[in-house]
Amino acid sequence: MEVRGTLTPRQIKLLRKLYNEGKTIEVHTVEKTQDELAEELGITRQALSNHLKVLKELGYIRTGRGFIDLTERALDLLGEKKGDVFVFVRIEPTKRKYVYEAIKKMNIKRIYRVTGDIDLIIEADKTRLDEILEEIASLEGVKETITHVVLEVL
């Protein structure tokens, strides 16, 4: 089958079906070479490869060229899957660009720029809530934060 610049209606239908039937999963991606990881861990590349193979077979990681994903299962095992929070942020209009840039540099899941009474919605992991709120509060131009902790996903 020849790959063309545009997709066929059937390919688009397939993508839509996969999207509709798929589920969103949380992963943490490491973009390091296996040589780098082996050196940092003080083990051989072969030993690392064996460990990664076992972790992959058990469903804790997914691997590809130049990346390793930790799966939801790995996060649960590590006790890192504690739940989400949404932080609503109000910003002084003259400081928006500065605050946007500063928040984009933070280690946060997602940042949404929205319309209405608030300027940003920040989605983050509640295990880091105190750290995130402290960082946001220290930014010149942040007028207010309102925090909502997710109790349950329905």
Structure report:
The chain has 154 residues and is of the alpha+beta class. It has six helices and seven strands; from the N terminus they run αβααββαβαββαβ. It has helices spanning 9-21, 34-41, 45-57, 72-78, 96-104, 129-137; strands at 28-30, 61-64, 67-70, 84-91, 110-113, 120-125, 142-149. The strands form two sheets. The protein has a four-stranded antiparallel sheet with strand order 5-6-4-7, with helices on one face. It has a three-stranded antiparallel sheet with strand order 1-3-2. Helix 2 (34-41) crosses helix 3 (45-57). The termini are far apart. The model has no long low-confidence stretch (mean pLDDT 85).
In brief, what are we looking at here?
The protein contains six helices and seven strands, in the order H-E-H-H-E-E-H-E-H-E-E-H-E. The protein has helices at residues 9-21, 34-41, 45-57, 72-78, 96-104, 129-137, and strands at 28-30, 61-64, 67-70, 84-91, 110-113, 120-125, 142-149. A four-stranded antiparallel sheet has the order 5-6-4-7, with helices on one face. It has a three-stranded antiparallel sheet with strand order 1-3-2.
